[in-house]
Amino acid sequence: MRGAEGTRDRRRNKPVMNQAITEIPDAVTSENSPSADELRKIDAYWRACNYLSLGMLYLCENPLLREPLKVEHLKKRLIGHWGSDPGQSFIWVHLNRLIKKYDLNMIYIAGPGHGAPATLANAYLEGTYSEVYPDKSEDAEGMCRFFKQFSFPGGIGSHCTPETPGSIHEGGELGYSVSHAFGAAFDNPNLIVSVVIGDGEAETGPLMGSLHSNKFLNPVCDGAVLPILHLNGYKIANPTVSARITSEELHSLLEGFGWAPYFVEGDDPPVMHRKMAMALDECVNRIRSIQGDARRGGIQERPRWPMVILRSPKGWTAPKKLDEHQLEGYWRAHQIPIPDVADNPAHLKILEEWMRGYKPEELFDANGKLIPELKEMAPIGKQRMSANPHANGGLLRKSLRLPNFRGYAAPVTKPGISQALPTYILGEFLRDVMRDNMANFRVFGPDETASNRLEAIYAATKKTWLAEFKSEDLDGGELSRDGRVMEMLSEHTLEGWAEGYVLTGRHVFFASYEAFFHIIDSMFNQHAKWLEKCKTEVKWRASISSLNLLVTSTVWRQDHNGFTHQDPGFLDVVTNKSAVVTRIYLPPDANCLLSTVDHCLRSVDYVNVIVADKHPHPQYLDIDAAAKHCEKGIGIWSWASNDLGSEPDVVIASAGDVVTLEALAATAILREKCPDLKIRFINAVDLFRLQPTSEHPHGLSDRDFNSLFTTDRPVIFNFHGYPALIHKLAYRRANHENMHVHGYREKGSISTPLGLTILNQVDRFNLAIDVIDRVPRLKTSGAHVKDWLRDQIVENLAYAHEYGMDKPEIRDWKWPCA
Ligand SMILES: Cc1ncc(C[n+]2csc(CCOP(=O)(O)OP(=O)(O)O)c2C)c(N)n1
Ligand SMILES: [Mg+2]
């Protein structure tokens, strides 16, 4: 073990790197070291794990090798990963020792989730697996079923999927283990989250960024995260970067990230067991001393938390070579280590000898159950990492105490007259949600909580910050060591924290710029998949809070930031995922936003995506009308319509705040210029109302949809996002061929707010022109109005180019028909 300690220059408050890495010789022991007997049992338990891992990869019969291994005992298709398993099981059994020795509350996150056989083996040996899935009992028959189901049709996946007891992290998409771990540790002062990082995983951007999470962990009110970098040297087919730089470089890198790395290196199991035990003892002592000091005497300086670097062979304990090829300690051990066992009797023999080398007959009793002296090596009850309730966070979830959202309403006496700043008002609501839930609610945003106008929250709590403080921070910095607003410029890290936090039973609100939600497209995908499985198949998982995402700083008000900041496509990504877990809301004004967020904070098992701009907007609905409108999800705004009691000539519909304003302005123009035109105005808050009920539980019935949108009248739909999305949702509807959707057409630059809408034809003038073109009797009679509308476009663009802003009547637009 190499113990590496940075020193600190207290005057400069900067960690100073100590280049010399002290290497502890293999033979050293301490009085605290485990006894020879304990080490023997740890090794035996580890052998049982490795045996089970191989069993999962290969066997569907003869689970305990009580008869000679034959081809018919093998699975026909061999799928799964070996390389990560022995190292991960090695870590797990040592963590078990730690939990028992120090009476710890610990969960385990497997960054390389493809190493699931290790996690599964341990869940099985701890008895949890059989408790959750009684047919996978702790006997030969159950073991056989346990082996067979792995990576088998109708069985379980080969990663730490939701079916895996003790898992909150599937680990299929590499990169998020550390951010998930920190999310789990926040506000869980007694929890230690151990997290195995694959050395390949450590090459990903998200993982690297997340190593900074230690500047956001408070030793008083949060738990600890114990990262274990699994330096097995290889990925699927390549060496890993961190294994091929010098230990000094790696040490410097991790120390630069603020960690105190402990190196455990080698391949001789007895020596490695002792070194790992010593390293983990050091880590726990260090964690306890950091927490103890901070909890007794306050935080003096940023703690340097411990982490372990475990350098051990990939596929450890496999045969050294297969034919002329190196197997153990090389990437060839990553997946099925001996793939041709069914066709190659010599290789089948090698596999059999390898498996028998773990001595299953010494590990399992006559019935096939782990022998008592090994059983007692694992913790019991909820202390088992496979049964820790934090890894089934819904069990611990408490509903939020929510203030009445009506108390925060923007006053609206007539629709479309007064202005308000929706996200600022939302911030006031969230401030009080925070005040009432100071231990299980956090707000996340990459450097933009104030920019997104949610700054009222800072009155309840500040931004978490454990790095250096400077005097200027007192002037508006809003930083605090015990803050509950999480801001770091890494959407990946924030999303991972937020996911880890909800997965362990708490509540989140995440706000980010619309265009940059795409950064976490894939994380959203993975979380939605996890939720879908939990909800539809894994019934023992308790419901968790929804992931609430506020999409703000939207496409339509990025006229100053320009093209790069204009992208409403996250909504398209969301609609690809299961209707069971996805919800999209586009509240048109502040009161609808309040009602929507109140609803989302109460909900479970969804990803709620809420789209709302951060600039002042006209307000349309008082709080009662807003609550009703949001409850319905879509509805006619009769005050904007003039088709009362008759068939409309045209339906003008909108979904989104800026586009609703433009659609209303178009309606007002048409009502003035074409007074006998019958217009029905519809607004959709809940986007999935557009889909048929067969596709989404929120979908309107065809009968309701047809009565709203008619079956034969033109529908001009002004949409916040890309127009194709509305067609995708509504293409089965009777009147789909008459739906003409305006939305973002990927046209952007620096412009004025109106200029950007004109560029994409979601502006009032182009909408009104489209109505004239689509209503048969206006096609020719409307020519004069159309001409006037074209003039308006030219004049408004010219004004914007001359003065750099929109005309006052555009900026101060009010609904004129009130
Ligand atoms: C983001 C991502 N990219 C690529 C892959 C494909 N993949 C699966 S395992 C693996 C190698 C992982 O190596 P490492 O993290 O070192 O894990 P080990 O098996 O060595 O423990 C890769 C590239 C993936 N799962 N996720
Ligand atoms: Mg590796």
What this model shows, in words?
The chain contains 26 helices and 26 strands. Helix 1 packs across helix 3, helix 2 (85-102) packs across helix 9 (269-297) and helix 23 (764-774) runs antiparallel to helix 25 (783-803). The N and C termini lie far apart (77 Å). Helix content is 36%, strand content 13%. Mean pLDDT is 95; it is low at 4-25. The longest helix has 29 residues, at 269-297. The chain has 818 residues and is α/β, with parallel strands linked by helices. Strand 25 (715-719), helix 21 and strand 26 form a beta-alpha-beta unit. The protein has a seven-stranded mixed beta sheet with strand order 4-1-8-9-7-6-5, with helices on both faces. The protein has a six-stranded parallel beta sheet with strand order 16-13-17-18-20-19, sandwiched between helices. The chain has a five-stranded mixed beta sheet with strand order 22-24-23-25-26, with helices on both faces. The structure holds thiamine diphosphate and magnesium ion (MG). The site of thiamine diphosphate has 22 residues, from loops.
